[in-house]
Structure formats: C-alpha cells, structure tokens
Amino acid sequence: MENHHTTAPVPQPFPNLKGAILLMLGGWGLMFLTGAAVRPFLSMEGMTAAGNIVGLSLMTWFGVRKARAPAVEVLSLRPFPPRLLAPLFLLAFSGSILVAEIGNLAEEIFPIPPSLRDLFLRILLAENWTEFLQRAALIVFIAPVTEELMFRGVFQHGLVKNYGPKKGIAIASICFGTFHLIPWQALGATLVGILLGIVVTRTGSILAGMVLHAIWNLLPLLAVSALKNLSLPGYALNLDTIAHIPAPAIVLALGIFLVTLHTFWCQTASKTAGPKPPSGSSQ
C-alpha cells in the first residue's frame, strides 16, 4: 500500500499585502483612540506625538512577533558607515526641493483647502525656541523613528521577501504614503518612501533611513520657523498662495540628487540589495 505524504505549505512571510493593510488599519485605529484619550490634556502636537508613539510602536511590536524572526533582522537594526552621512544629507536636501516642487505642481491641479493649508503651517510654524523644540521632537525625532521601524522595518522586510526587492519597496512606499491619509501628502510621502527604502536596502541599516527621514523633516521646519524670508520660494507652504521653486534651483537640485545618488550607490555594498523572494512566491 502506497503512503502519500503531503507537504505542509510553507507559511508566507509576514506581512504580505493583506497583512500590511491590516497593520495600517490597526495603526490608524490606535492613533485615533490615543489622540482622543489625551485630547483634554495635550496640545495638537502632543496628541499627534502620543498617537504616533502608541499606534506605530504597538503595530511594529505586533509585526515583529508575527514575522517570527529576530527583531534585529526584521528591523535592520545595524549601524551604517559614518562616511554616508554627507550623501544622506545631500539626498535629503536636494530630494526635498524636487518633491516640494512636485507638490506645488500637483496643487495647481488640486488646490489644498485653506483650512488644511493652515493646519500644515501650524505644525511647522514655531514662534519661539520652546515651540521649535516641541515641533522638532515630533517631526524630527518621533516620526522618523516610529515610521521607519514600521514601514522600512516590518513592512519592507515582509514585502520584499514576498514580492522581491523592487515590488516590495514600491508596495511599502505606497503604504507609507497612504498612511498619511491626506491626499496632498500621499504622493510626496510615497516618493520619499521609495528613496528611504533604497537607502535602507543598500545600507542594510534602518538607522540610515531614520537619519535621512529626520533631515528631510527638519528642512521644511527650518524653512518655515527659522529662516522664514531667507528660505527658497516655493519650498515651504505659503498661507494663501501657490509659489514655485525657481527653475535654476530645480536644475541644480536635480543635478546634486543624481550625482549624490550615484555616489551613494557606489559606496554601498551590492550584497545589501535585498533578500530574494522565496521560491514559489508571486512576482
């Protein structure tokens, strides 16, 4: 009598696309619940910070547990060479100018409602050093740390294993853009997410992504709160007008970005180009 042995299906790495969507829904829910709970006691910035910390931290913890792999591997908790700090700064500086102008062009087609524009400016505008440090804590420290751990950590780890490096980074970046909820932020955040995904993949370090993310967020905060009239036209939101970045600045930023990206690519090891998808996974 023949024995027919059935092989148990290999569990799909977590998260796949469905798992990523569920993690985002969980993160949104926890952020809104936390914000509502602390609303009587904290300012808008405090509510946002509390919701961000609780929602993304719990979803990151859950994602690491479901991934059934060491946290160091899932979250890419490794150092990166200090020589990459200069390229990361230049990528953030030039890339943020290019993405800002893409946002300006998009706003010509889909104008931002005045109330939403005012909200964006309130998040960035600080009248004194105390307010500046409060906003910097949220935008430059809390957001880069929690968002990178979730999206370039948990999300990218599972999605790259399931769909390969290119599709995995693209899906994680779209999730990152979508997570911002506001359509006027989604496109820019998706583009930034792709760059962050490449940086983390090439360096093998989530810390490199956090540094790039922090610099990227710091620049508009400085432009609105510290530099004000000295900042580049069109780089930061104006109260009631759509301004565009001058063409020479765009060309210069594009040149800096491409040269720096090439330099960064050459300085990072090709072996960190991302894990290959498991055999039998969809591409």
The structural class is: mainly alpha
Strand content: under 5%
- What's the total count of β strands? 0
SSE series = HHHHHHHHHH
Shape: globular
- Count of individual helical segments: 10
Low confidence ranges: 271-283
Give a summary of the structure in a few sentences.
The chain has 283 residues and is mainly alpha-helical. It has 10 helices and no strands. The longest helix has 35 residues.
Describe the structure.
The longest helix is centred in the middle third of the chain and has 35 residues, at 129-163. The protein is an all-alpha fold and 283 residues long. The two termini are 40 Å apart. The model is unreliable at 271-283 (pLDDT under 50). The chain has helices at 17-38, 44-67, 71-74, 85-109, 114-124, 129-163, 165-179, 183-203, 206-227, 247-267. Helix 4 packs antiparallel against helix 8 and helix 4 packs across helix 9. The relative contact order is 0.15. It has a domain at 76-272.
